[in-house]
């Protein structure tokens, strides 16, 4: 028993012995264990609290998912900062010396944190101005996808190919962003349709309108329309313009389905495309001329 007490006193002496002087304070191994343990608990607790606030508390409010995530992140950051200061104070660490060290380190790494600070400020700007929100269909640098998460540092996009793209928030403030869902969920797509010169314009318009009205993904209010754009060198150029909300994330599928429907409708109504002016149609057989 005496031997165990002796070992315990030696171990306790090792933990209590100061080895890192910081200003008026000296840090021991016990201080480090105390600070890191409490901070790990604080980190875990704030993470759970953030999820509860986003999924339970704020879910009943009028805030959308993006605003809830941003508010949760800001609240967690504030609690972590205040909690860390309280932990240091209860551990008996002189905060004035920590401030001096932090200032010296901040001067040395300020250039490296410029981009991080820029993204953080941009994240706050996105929170209040809300040019984008979770669920929006956006295009950044030629890449199109759905916004699935907005944090204080970056925004996460998911493309149609199920590829996740992390975009720094500063890019949304400095660059040009196309938001297809900013005003509402309706988006208009335009599909060029070139036909042969021999086609009757009014018949082409009627056929295209009939195709648009019979497609389930095309919204009828506002209604689709057809524009007779110009007399081209190779044919007559029309543009079919339709509104949709079901195909917002898959415009290529809508284009493919409408192109197939237009092709079948043109075949049925004996309308030739501009790139195929010699398209054969069903004609009664007649005498054939032979070359001599």
Explained architecture:
The chain has 292 residues and is α+β, with helices and mostly antiparallel strands. The chain folds into three domains: 12-110, no CATH class; 131-179, SH3 type barrels (Roll); 187-268, Alpha-Beta Plaits (2-Layer Sandwich), CATH 3.30.70. The protein is built from eight helices and ten strands. It has helices at 2-16, 29-57, 65-90, 95-109, 114-129, 169-174, 201-213, 251-268; strands spanning 18-22, 25-28, 137-140, 143-150, 154-158, 164-168, 178-179, 187-195, 225-231, 236-244. The strands form three sheets. It has a five-stranded antiparallel sheet with strand order 6-5-4-3-7. A three-stranded antiparallel sheet has the order 8-10-9, with helices on one face. Strand 4 and strand 5 form a beta hairpin. Helix 2 packs antiparallel against helix 3. The chain is elongated. The model is unreliable at 276-292 (pLDDT under 50).
């Amino acid at each position: 028993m005496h031997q165990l007490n002796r070992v315990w006193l030696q171990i306790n002496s090792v933990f209590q012995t100061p080895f890192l002087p910081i200003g008026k304070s000296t840090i021991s191994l016990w201080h480090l264990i105390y600070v890191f343990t409490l901070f790990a608990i604080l980190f875990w607790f704030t993470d759970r609290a953030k999820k509860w606030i986003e999924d339970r508390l704020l879910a009943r409010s009028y805030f959308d998912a993006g605003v809830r995530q941003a508010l949760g992140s800001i609240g967690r950051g504030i609690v972590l900062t205040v909690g860390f200061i309280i932990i240091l104070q209860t551990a008996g660490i002189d905060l004035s010396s920590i401030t001096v060290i932090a200032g010296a380190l901040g001067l040395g790494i300020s250039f490296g944190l410029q981009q991080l600070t820029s993204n953080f400020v941009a994240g706050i700007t996105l929170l209040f101005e809300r040019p984008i929100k979770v669920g929006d269909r956006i295009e950044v640098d030629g890449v199109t996808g759905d916004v699935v998460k907005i944090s204080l540092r970056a925004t996460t996009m998911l493309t149609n190919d199920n590829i996740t793209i992390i975009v720094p928030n500063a890019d949304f403030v400095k660059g040009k962003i196309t938001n297809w869902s900013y005003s509402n969920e309706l988006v208009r797509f335009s599909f060029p349709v070139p036909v042969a010169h021999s086609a009757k314009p009014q018949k082409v318009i009627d056929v295209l309108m009939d195709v648009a009205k019979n497609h389930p993904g095309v919204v009828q209010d506002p209604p689709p329309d057809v524009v007779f754009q110009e007399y081209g060198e190779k044919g007559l150029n029309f543009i079919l313009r339709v509104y949709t909300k079901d195909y917002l994330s898959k415009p290529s599928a809508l284009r493919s389905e409408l192109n197939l429907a237009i092709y079948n409708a043109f075949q049925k109504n004996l309308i030739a495309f501009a790139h195929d002016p010699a398209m054969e149609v069903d004609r009664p057989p007649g005498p054939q001329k032979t070359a001599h």
